[in-house]
Design a protein that fits this description.
Number of strands: 31
Distance between the termini: 87 Å
CATH superfamily of the largest domain: P-loop containing nucleotide triphosphate hydrolases
Strand content: 25-35%
Largest sheet: 6 strands, mixed
Number of domains: 5
Shape: elongated
Structural class: alpha+beta
Oligomer: single chain
Helix content: 25-40%
CATH architecture of the largest domain: 3-Layer(aba) Sandwich
């Protein structure tokens, strides 16, 4: 069976459904209302056996303007269109709109079928042929064959089947590689089986027992049975009309317009960037947006990039789509088609960017990847997100990614989750980090360096933590930055206080050394030396980092020599007496409780001593030393 879908198009009552019945024996008008009104309302589906033995799918669409949304649902899966025009009426409004829609959806092949030829004489027939040829002269059907038929008498049907056979032999079947996507156009229930959905598989393949989900609904299910043209099969491939029995879903869990896709592949979107082609002015206000079997409303902000119309489209309801997804735009009122196009970026992360759009407008997959990475910014984009945006996986995507890595255009910074960033962004981040550290040194010359979190938070944009870590490690390897404990500093940097604070540091040290075990508080020290508390704290912090002071608590410092004397007195006392209590501390260094308790707590904190009830003993590391 050839994986090709033939679809009808044309004005209401021009004989589309009658033609399909004459060719296949199947009446696609299955609804009671359709029978009563003699009017196609819903999509109809069947298959057609061609003279060569090939079998193809057939979609019959409504012609009435009121049911244009149903026509759009069917047209989205068509490979070859039969433009049906009644010989006794010629080109009519829906003839025109249907061909516009087919062209906007990217359909490239078709056959023109003049029906009801039994109702006109030869002169009128010639006039009708001329009329339709003039109409299609500027469309994709300009070179399409014209076949005259009568569904009533059967005249011309054999010629039409031969022409259709010839045409499908020149059409390439859809790729079965890539992610399988089934836009749902019907949902119903069959007793003993449960929920069944139908649609035209647009890419990839589905197999029995495959785990799937509905999107944007998000309901999980399992493929239980598959039918193609009424026959059970174990798998279905792109370009085929299919019915899939879904296990684990009720008919209320899914509706027309949703996608059946593999688990965890796609995510819904309400905002997208797209290339558009306008056939009428869009005006202001909302638009109707049709994509695959989905219809919603939205707003469109038009731009121009290198002479091409592009737009950011914001939708009222979430949809599922990917790069290249074709859509139709219609005016809300009056309801007419004003344009169409295809999706460039289904998940734009930042403001509209001409640079990103230029990459996405390219024919090269590598540039599409770069465009998406540029849009992702310093958050980066994972391989899984690329797959979702491009609906592409396997060797093609992998080859493109490897070529970009090899050429240095992109950087992988998270191997566990396979996340990438555009290399220019990583380079820019390096420059910002070096400048950030330098600026911090200039403002805080006495500090040993900036903390990781302070540096990361100072960078513009929401930088991915793993990207920050990779860039930092690259800079450290190159020697441009250094990391010591919690601090990051420029390569070769050495903290200093400068001349003014350097003199203050000497005075501070002498004052603390002279005060022994009863040092003044920070505020008292600042007052004694005639400086501000902030300056004093900077000096004390510097001297502490230099190893010249020890901080007993927030506002109490002693010199290293005094600390050594404190430890020695405590060690000697405990060696003689096995334990030390607060009163003993007061006695051995001659201080009040105001100092004794902070000293005891400090020695516990640095694990010189250990508290047991209300006494202190030497910590094990001290006993063994």
């Amino acid at each position: 069976m050839k994986r090709i879908i033939i679809g009808t198009a044309g004005h209401v009552d021009h004989g589309k459904t009658s033609l399909i019945k004459a060719l296949t024996g199947v009446d696609c008008d299955r609804l009671k209302e359709e029978k009563e009104r003699g009017l196609t309302i819903e999509l109809g589906f069947t298959s057609l056996n061609l003279p060569s033995g090939e079998r193809v799918g057939v979609v019959d669409v409504p012609g009435h303007v009121k049911f244009i949304r149903h026509m759009l649902s069917g047209a989205s899966g068509i490979d070859l269109v039969m433009l049906v025009v009644a010989a006794d009426e010629g080109v009519m409004p829906q003839t025109i709109e249907h061909i516009q829609i087919c062209e906007l959806l990217g359909i490239e092949r078709g056959v023109i079928v003049l029906t009801k030829v039994d109702l006109v004489d030869d002169d009128l027939l010639e006039l009708a042929i001329s009329d339709i040829q003039d109409f299609v002269a500027t469309t994709f059907l300009k070179d399409a064959p014209v076949v005259t038929v009568s569904s009533t008498t059967g005249k011309g049907l054999d010629d039409l089947l031969r022409v259709l056979d010839e045409q499908i032999n020149t059409i390439h079947e859809r790729k079965i590689s890539g992610i399988p996507v089934l836009p749902v156009d019907r949902v119903f229930s069959i007793k003993g089986f449960g929920t069944v959905v139908t649609g035209t598989l647009s890419r990839g393949l589905f197999a029995e027992d495959q785990e799937v989900e509905t999107q944007p609904g998000g309901h999980k299910a399992k493929v239980r049975n598959i039918q193609v043209h009424g026959q059970e099969v174990d798998k279905v491939m792109a370009g085929t009309r299919t019915a899939i029995n879904l296990q684990g879903l009720g008919t209320d869990d899914i509706s027309r317009g949703e996608w059946i896709v593999p688990l965890g592949t796609f995510r819904p979107t309400r905002v997208l960037d797209a290339w558009v082609r306008l056939i009428d002015k869009p005006g202001k206000g909302k638009i109707k947006f049709h994509i695959d079997t989905t219809e919603t409303s939205g707003e469109m902000s038009l731009r121009q990039v290198d002479g091409q119309d592009v737009a950011r489209i914001r939708l009222k309801e979430p949809i599922i789509t990917s790069f290249g997804g074709r859509f139709i735009i219609r005016r809300m009122s009056p309801s007419v088609t004003i344009g169409g196009g295809f999706v460039l970026n289904p998940y734009p992360a930042r403001r509209f960017s001409e640079d990103v759009i230029r990459d996405l407008l390219s024919d090269d997959l590598g540039r599409h990847i770069i465009g998406l990475m540029k849009d992702a910014g310093v958050q980066g984009i994972s391989r899984k997100e690329l797959v979702s945006s491009l609906a592409e996986e396997g060797s093609g995507l992998e080859k493109a990614i490897q070529e970009l890595l090899s050429s240095g255009q992109i950087v992988r910074f998270d191997s566990q989750n396979d996340v990438y960033v555009y290399s220019s962004y990583a380079q820019g981040l390096q420059e910002l980090m070096v400048k950030g550290v330098a600026a911090y040194h200039e403002e805080n010359p006495s500090s040993p360096g900036i903390s990781r979190e302070h540096l990361r938070s100072s960078l513009k944009g929401n930088v991915n933590p793993k990207l920050f870590h990779k860039v930092l490690q690259d800079l450290i390897r190159k020697g441009e930055l250094e990391e010591s404990g919690p601090h990051i500093n420029a390569g070769g940097f050495s903290a200093s206080l400068g001349d003014a604070l350097g003199e203050l540091s000497e005075k501070t040290y002498r004052r603390l050394h002279a005060s022994g075990f009863e040092p003044p508080k920070t505020s008292e020290l600042a007052q004694d030396l005639g400086v501000g508390v902030k300056e004093m704290e900077e000096v004390l912090g510097f001297l502490r980092r230099e190893g010249k002071l020890s901080r007993i608590k927030d506002d109490l410092y002693i010199t290293a020599e005094v600390e050594a004397a404190l430890k020695e007195k405590v060690r000697e006392f405990i060696d003689r007496n096995q334990a030390l209590n607060p009163a003993d501390m007061k006695a051995i260094i001659g201080v009040s409780r105001k100092y004794a308790i902070p000293y005891l707590e400090y020695l516990d904190r640095i694990h010189f001593t250990v508290r047991v009830d209300n006494i202190r003993k030497l910590a094990s590391v001290q006993k063994g030393s």
